[in-house]
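Board notes (copied after class):
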Amino acid sequence: MVRRAPLVAQVPEVAEFLSWLEVERGRSVNTVSAYRRDLQTYVGWLAEQGHELSNADETILATYLAELRGSRAPASVARALAAIRQFHRFLVDEGVAFTDPTDHLSGQRVPAGVPKALSEDETESLLAAVAGDDPIARRDRAILETLYATGMRISELVGLSIDDIDLDAGYVRAFGKGSKERIVPLGRPARDALRAWLSSSARGLLVPASWQTRSDADAVFLNQRGGRLSRQGAWAIVRRYGDAVGLGDRLSPHVLRHSCATHLLDHGADIRMVQELLGHASISTTQVYTKVATERLWQVYDEAHPRARGAGARS
């Protein structure tokens, strides 16, 4: 008989771990949600197999990971393993368990991918796709311009409050992973788009008779009901305009972040500046964009130089 998978909220050890992540480690809402999903799948699988959480050992975990590898991408498996590993270490640290079954498990290797940035022409087409001057068009134009101008994560964008933006000075204050604050410049098109959106004839028309929360009242970007725009809502807006210009599945908010970084490096920006702009904790995270820029350089060279494919050309 297959057991019904328990909800993570019904597993005290998991609930305590997620609370610890959020309160004591300061992990973001998105990170905690991702861990919750991975642990829900994990404890559900244990229940279906007739295993208790307290009896999970290295053999059981190896079987679980083998099943994941058969159905998920390497990056997804790596994330799930990270969640499970940290969870079991938490149980040992808290004295709930005596051993950690993940101690000798090998990690999931994730192939080093090159971010698929848009070309500058594709980016210009996307930014020009918003038609009209009504409040929704002004909001959507400001969203696209701000994402590309700043390289912000979508969660950082929807988390912006009015006081985080200084249009006269030309900067925005973003709060990244772990609530780390950074100051990011705003180019003139982004400033103009934000100024048009924040006017009484745009955002002002979406202000409700009474605010649901203080967070809604402070929000830069509102939905049509006058609440703070959600991450999912902003994601859908980006994809809608991507579909309109034929980018389809190639476009997501993160692709605009990749494009911002890649285009900066293409035009000679210092990698340390790009690291600070994007809020990367490590320069190694930013260095992947130098690979993108180099690949583009070789593509142009191969297509344009008469001897690119001759003797001495790159193998």
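Comment from the instructor: The chain has a mean pLDDT of 83. The longest strand covers residues 171-175.
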